[in-house]
Design a protein that fits this description.
Chains A, B, C, D: It holds the Pfam family OHCU_decarbox. Four copies of one chain form a homotetramer. Chain A is an alpha/beta fold. Chain A has eleven helices and twelve strands. Chain A has a four-stranded mixed β-sheet, with no helix packed on it. A four-stranded antiparallel β-sheet of chain A has the order 7-6-8-9. In chain A, strands 1-2 form a two-stranded parallel ribbon. Chain A is globular and about 75 Å long.
């Protein structure tokens, strides 16, 4: 990644430097930066991104379709053959789309072909905002779109992709929100205090498998030292937190039954807003618990 | 099963008929019934059972040990070879202990041998009050007992076994409690009403596997038409209820996200009291839920 | 109250007996019973009531207005002077409307006059379904109605009044629901059991005062031996349950602070459905509680 | 109040300046500062306070009693006549103890006399950590103490009083905690978001009256812009938060009944730890709510 630019430097740059500095934000489309140049100066990074998106959205439909066609297939031959633009490669790699099994690859090939036959464009999705499970669900769902709605959906995803790239490239005021956060809090309402030292696991729940994302313990305030997820978009998907409250309560209440009523408490929930804050607390006693989407 | 006797008939029977009528309640030990005869009449079935247990517990330790030794090994050769008393066979069969895999059989053989070497008696447990997972946990735990505590534990299990047999054999007032109950209730606190039509699954959670015990739907009162478990002892073990609230709330609130915060809600809990009532409700909105051991 | 009739006897009665038997259900309007006679036999008490209401609702508007005009003013001169029909008297007396202070009487007089000036009919409301607070709120609210809506509201109230009278007069299958129920349940989720012996008070909350309706204690199941309210319509109004959990938890957990976090827990709630079931439980620990409208 | 000193300056001061600087922290007892001088330098303000308290606690019992006797009666003649030390006056005034009704004054006189007769010292309590209700409860309770326990209680209160004075007088690292905090949070689990714009009232609940302490509204995060209480010790006592959720939910759900199930939700709770953090949230839907002591 090149050094980060500042928005001030961009506002001061001449046309050639401006376009060069934004190269690759919109893949194979230097004209997007060209068309945004006139709108300088930009008060915020968000305003710069909106101007660039506006440059795309104001084009006639045929040019918008041609622009989308410049994007690589998802998990397609280009990903396998290493022919994608460097940034596309690393973004898809984060989801493991560059190392699919043959069966998974075949499924993506089938979906890509069906999608291309229906819409005449490649399936574009901001993979950094998705679990693999969610990518497949979105693929199936968007195949049911009318062409106009689907072109809008593809462009909205390009908005997500380029917003992320721009925030990483350009430093300045008014950066658009691209990061979400998952946090938790374990409260012991038997004793009226935070529950310290409770083992917490976070799983990603796929259609047929579950993957352990991390394991940690609650601190003296009943929270985790770091957010469970954060620093970038949350991936749309289904998750499960497992709180190992059995040992915690057994240490406090020796008279509890050997097979406690509550031991490993799973909280399963969906994340639909990658830039949102999901606070998912556990309010528990040895005989009850509650959770909610908090703030 | 023979026709059920009445307690009144037993109270009126002569010694020979009395002993014959109670044959097999205590395996290979007609002397237990003999010794209880003098205590007639019995006001309740529970009093009859207590008298029989007292006949055992009042014997010297050597006789108590000899009495326990008359019981078959758990999941042992006798079970495999069909040599057990008819009632023992059907009781163990309910847990699948007569059709173990070779590896499981080997594990039980090992535990049986270790237990026999340590205590000189077979491992006795009332299998109808246990999941297979709980039998193995009890086996491991009881191996750590002192001999006196373990003899008491074995006799307590014989108390459970014979209480169940007696209640099935003898009709009369004051039957001891041998049945537990698991019930649920789904309440929709978004709308302030019972949640009707919610799919509910009940799983038994073993050490390494989960087994679907049943699947049902909530009725207009948010309950299930029948208790989830009941009619006999609950099996000590770990369970999971899964409530499919996603479709229920989606039908009521079309604006909910496609990937809802709550879809399949699992409640995992332990049952430690086979004769207890476990009421495990779900109080839910699309964004929160709570549960507790109710009554 | 005369002996209760049976629906079967009514179905068999001749016209004169039929009308006599139903005398007073609809005040000063024997023609309602007359007009219903032809619809015999009635399968249910509810069907009889519906037929009688239909006899009213099918009349031209002038006759419906004249019919409503036969009803006494609420808390009016007739109530004070003892000139009302016997049943009206006892119904209004239940709410204390026959013994208002002079100021309250003046307020009702003012509302009656304003209402009569606006609609040309007396204000009719089924007082047995109302707290005094709710009567005044309804008075104010219905003064804002258009005349047609208000005539419908008055006739709906006459439906409530006569339904109650009919159910008390006639025994038979299919009685319409006229009784609601308020119940509670105190659950101790610190110990995982019903909370026994908790003092519970029920107050009616008026605009400026609160009246203790009853005081009781929870039984071994954490419930009250009798429903808190029941046996007739619940009165629309605002209520408060006060649960004295302080002494209960102090007895179980001596280490709690002298000034406990929870001592008297008030749950304030409105009742809007006189024939509904309001289950208002308290799920509590010394440091938390929850409630909901249950079922 | 004089300018605040720094701990560093105190550590550098000579004996005379040191004693002068701490004048009045312990009323009428310059020897406390004198005795602490030798222990310089103090790493923290807390260490300085502990050294001063140690100077008191290490004296023989007769001297400790004499020291306590230097304190003014609570709400006594000195308070009325303006004869107390300036700081004592303002501290008692905060609780309104300088403007009691004649009946209240008489009650305090009676308690003071009984206490003095029993223990031979004035009743000392850190009034800034108490509601008036709590002062009276403590008075009654401490009258039941054995003399030794009561002397310890009085000295502990002097510890609280002087800790507060010292923290206000001396700036420096390691100040002892003297401030508590009461916060709230309203979460709408019907919509899965913070409840904005909910009117919140905080009352102090006395034995026979309730006083409105403040009224505010929740902000966009469902919290209040400022802690409800804070900036000093919380007063031990009973409080009630009233959340006006009726209008909030009615605006979101027009189909709710006119007499809503939840309108004004009271949460009544005790505060026992003046230096603690009491987080008392409301998790609500139109048909349910929960609260707990959070963190």
């Amino acid at each position: 990644m090149p050094d980060r630019l500042t928005l001030a430097a961009l506002n001061d740059a001449d046309r050639t430097s401006f376009v060069a500095a934004l190269d690759g934000i919109f893949e194979h489309a230097p004209w997007v930066a060209e068309a945004s140049f006139a709108a300088r100066p930009f008060a915020t990074v968000a305003a710069l991104h909106e101007a660039m998106m506006q440059a795309v959205l104001s084009r006639p439909i045929e040019e918008r379709l041609a622009f989308v066609r410049l994007h690589p297939d998802l998990a397609g031959k280009a990903a396998r053959a290493g022919e994608m633009a460097a940034e596309s490669v690393s973004e898809q790699a984060g989801l493991g789309l560059d190392r699919l099994s043959d069966a998974e690859y075949a499924r993506f090939e089938r979906l890509n072909a069906e999608y291309d036959g229906r819409f005449g464009i490649p399936f574009v999705i901001c993979v950094r905002r998705q679990t693999r499970d969610a990518v497949l669900a979105a693929f199936e769902r968007r195949l049911g779109h009318a062409p106009g709605a689907e072109l809008a959906a593809a462009l909205a995803e390009i908005g997500h992709i380029t917003r992320l790239r721009l925030v990483e490239r350009v430093d300045g005021p008014g950066a658009p929100a691209v990061a979400g956060r998952l946090t938790t809090h374990v409260l012991d309402t038997q004793s009226g205090c935070p529950a310290e030292g409770v083992r917490v696991q976070l799983y990603e729940i796929g259609h047929s498998a579950r993957a352990l994302l991390l394991e940690t313990r609650t601190n003296a305030d009943g929270r985790t030292d770091q957010p469970l997820l954060g620093g970038g978009p949350l991936r749309i998907g289904t998750y499960e937190l497992v709180f190992h409250v059995g040992p915690y309560f057994a240490a406090k209440s020796p008279a509890l039954p050997e097979r406690p009523f509550l031991d490993e408490v799973p909280l399963r929930f969906g994340i639909a807003e990658p830039e949102g804050h999901y606070h998912v607390p556990l309010i528990a006693t040895p005989w009850s618990y509650a959770t909610y989407r908090g703030s």
